[in-house]
Specification:
single chain, 287 residues, alpha/beta, Rossmann fold, four-stranded antiparallel β-sheet, 9 helices, 23% strand
Amino acid sequence: MAILELKNVSKSFRGKSGGAATEVLRAVDLTIEEGEFVAIVGFSGSGKSTLVNLLCGLLTPDRGEVLFKGQKNLPPGPDRGVVFQNYSLLPWLTVYENIRLAVDQVMTSASAAEKDERVRHYVDMVSLTHALAKKPKELSGGMRQRVSLARTLAISPDVLLMDEPLGALDALTRAVLQDEIAKIWSEEKKTVLLVTNDVDEGLLLADRIIPLKPGPGATLGKEFSIDLARPRLRTELNHDPAFKALRNEIVAYLNRVRDESRANSASGMGKTSVTLPQLTPADLRAE
C-alpha cells in the first residue's frame, strides 16, 4: 500500500528581488510503499531538499498533489518525521531535554514515567546514554546527528524523511551512522525516504535508488531496484560483483543525465547552476 505519493508535482521559487520564478521541480511522480526504504540520489542544487519539504508539508506544490495515506497536501505533523542536515537542536537544552521536548508535544496523555522511558529508549538506541546531560556544544557533529535521529524516532512517525543527514560528517563517522540507520530500520521497520548525493550510501541502505536529474526543472529519472541481501556489510559489498555492477550503472546514468543537462544549457534550452564534470562514486560522496 502506498503511504506517500507525489503526482505530477512542480514547484517554483522567486528570488528576493522578484523577477521571473525559477522552476526547481517539474512534473515529479513518486510512490513509496509502506515499510519501504527509498533513496533519492542527486547533485547539489537539484532540488532534493525541496522534495523533502513538499513530502513533510513544509511546502505546497504549485501544481500536482502530495498524498500521505491518500490525503492531499496535509500540513506538517508528527506522522512524518524529518531528520535535517543541520541537527536543529536547541543549544540551551541537554540531549535528554531536546528529545523530551518533542516527546511531550506528541505523547500528551502519557505519564511522566512513560515519556521518560521513551526518551531513554531512543537515546540508548543511538548509543548516547552516556551523554544524556550534555548540551549540543559539548557533542561532536556525529553525536548531534544521533540526537536529531533519536528525537525524530521518539515521536514514532509513520514515515522518516532524511534530508542528507550525514553530508557534513567525516567519512568514518558517516560510515558508523550509516550502520546505525541500517540497524534501526531493521528493528523499527519504518518507511524511510533518504535524500543523499552518495550512491554507495543509497546502495548500502535502500530498497530502491531513484536519481533526481539536474535542475532547474528537475524531475526523477530511471529507478534502480537493489536486490542485495540484508544485512549489507560494506566490507563484503566491495567484493560483490552485483554491487559493483549496479553502482557503475547508476553512476553512468548520473553522468549521462548531467551531460545532457550541460548540452541543453549550452544550446539555450535550459540553465544549470552547477559545474558538470564526469563523476565517480567518490566524487558524488564529496559534493
